[in-house]
Specification:
It is a single chain. 51% of the residues lie in helices and 12% in strands. By secondary structure, the chain is of the alpha+beta class. It has one domain (12-216). Helix 2 (49-59) packs antiparallel against helix 7 (174-189), helix 3 packs across helix 7 and helix 4 packs parallel to helix 9 (202-231). The N and C termini lie far apart (116 Å). Mean pLDDT is 82; it is low at 1-8, 211-219 and 240-249.
């Protein structure tokens, strides 16, 4: 932060914030640090179905409302200089005022077995491949299932357990808000990370759906085959089994 007239702090411009973040990232990379910054082009944080659904889920809850606007500003200015999404945990570094870098961590509850079983049951027969699932190309009714606040895949506020090393004693500070928005951006390129975070496998969700669909198709095929066999004439049966079904001779 620079200094203006009469000794009051001067707010940094957007360009200054972005340049400061860029230099910090470059310095860390030069030191050999393995970091994964959140880079956003323009004002849209997330563009994919998964990223937008993640951010929309956050905005539904009043617990997050008073900090989200500052978080959006921080993430779009490039202040989330490192973001790691692990099983049940988000780890990040956020550039704050001046040259301060704050450490953020969010422990997240795994999706309960009950919720997962209910979810897989509702998804059965509605997804044909893992690619279809991760690309967000599925029926509209499935969107409601995945984003349901009680039994869906996205977390509720009570399932977040956040920590930030900044002086703000609020449970959910602007740095954490930036990190959470950063997750939405990361899901654009790697939607499978949401499943990693919730402790479940996208392949399992799809395989159960495919197995159910396959069993249904096999059952239908067998039924059709049985019906067709009943309708076959003797000549058809002879041809199929290579047996001469001779017609009985007329009795004199």
């Amino acid at each position: 932060m620079g200094w203006g007239y009469y000794g009051y702090g001067r707010s940094e411009s957007v360009g200054e914030k972005k340049e400061k973040a860029r230099k910090k990232i470059a310095a860390l990379l030069k030191k050999g640090k393995k970091i994964s910054p959140v880079t956003i082009e323009g004002r849209t944080i997330a563009k994919s179905w998964w990223g937008r659904a993640w951010n929309s889920n956050l905005e539904l809850y009043a617990d997050f409302a008073n900090r989200l606007s500052r978080g959006r500003s921080y993430v779009t200015h490039g202040c989330v200089i490192d973001l790691q999404i692990l099983p049940g945990k988000i780890k990040a570094q956020v550039l704050g005022s001046g040259s301060s870098v704050y450490r953020c961590e969010v422990e997240m509850d795994a999706l309960s077995n009950t919720s997962w079983k209910g979810l897989t049951k509702l998804v059965e027969g509605k997804i044909s491949s893992l690619t279809e699932l991760l690309s967000g190309k599925f029926p509209v009714e499935l969107e409601a299932v995945l984003t349901d606040q009680k039994g869906g895949l996205f977390p509720t506020p009570g399932q977040f357990h956040p920590y930030c090393s900044c002086p703000d004693h609020a449970k959910f500070c602007k740095h954490l808000a930036a990190v959470i928005y950063g997750v939405g951006n990361r899901l654009d390129a790697q939607p499978e990370l949401l499943f990693t975070l919730r402790g479940v496998s996208p392949s399992e969700l799809v395989s159960k759906a495919i197995i159910t669909e396959k069993d249904s198709l096999v059952a239908k095929a067998q039924k059709v085959k049985s019906t067709r066999l009943l309708k076959l004439k003797d000549n058809d049966l002879s041809e199929m089994f290579h047996i001469d079904f001779a017609k009985p001779r007329n009795k004199k």
